[in-house]
Amino acid sequence: MSTNPQEFISNSTSDVETKKIGACIAKKIAILFEQGESLDSKGWTVVLNGTLGSGKTQFAQGFLAALGVEQEVVSPTFVLVIPYETRDLRVAHLDLYRIEHAEEVDDLGLDELVEDGCVLLIEWGEKFSFAIPPADLKVNLNITGNQNREIRIVASSPKGESLVEQLRLKNF
Ligand SMILES: Nc1ncnc2c1ncn2[C@@H]1O[C@H](COP(=O)(O)OP(=O)(O)OP(=O)(O)O)[C@@H](O)[C@H]1O
Ligand SMILES: [Mg+2]
């Protein structure tokens, strides 16, 4: 386990495991959101970082499945934003890979979505970190083998820290 209290590291050995980590985080965000732990009613910005094929979409699939989304979760590479209404949370899944100009990000109205309590899952968010709402959590996926991924979950806000703290307490 990492000694940095702001982060939690998990080594995934399959896409199923990566989905489980996504699911675990979704459930924890839903609980924190319901408890109003965030001290506000704002949503979350979760930035998914990692090269092509590192598992960002797999993570998002697990995240959404845990919230009861039954429809197929596809990569939002061409549509940019795919919204999901779930029982517990509103989620918007984004992929900024093909975006070239920050103005295109501004046009998406992401600040308003977070103000309204939406959870943003942003693939390739780091590319426009200056144009997206400040991250609460960063999920950094690193390819360490054919089926292996190091998943480093880093807190970037107080509520992100409370989530990482919970992950560290319960060694799942
Ligand atoms: N441990 C693992 N975790 C996640 N995916 C894995 C793992 N091992 C193998 N894979 C495979 O790696 C691929 C990950 O694809 P995925 O679409 O999630 O990547 P991505 O990071 O979203 O890529 P892109 O930047 O193109 O959107 C899938 O084919 C998946 O089956
Ligand atoms: Mg993807």
Helix content: 25-40%
Order of helices and strands: EHEHEEHHEEEH
Radius of gyration over C-alpha positions, nearest whole angstrom? 15 Å
Under the CATH scheme, the architecture is 3-Layer(aba) Sandwich
What would the CATH topology be? Rossmann fold
Q: Specify the CATH homologous superfamily.
A: P-loop containing nucleotide triphosphate hydrolases
Distance between the termini: 12 Å
Mean pLDDT: 91
Number of helices: 5
Low-confidence stretches: none
Helix/strand/pairing category: alpha/beta
Q: What's the β-strand tally?
A: 7
- CATH classification class: Alpha Beta
> What is the strand arrangement across the widest sheet?
1-7-6-2-5-4-3
Approximately what portion of the residues adopt beta-strand conformation? 25-35%
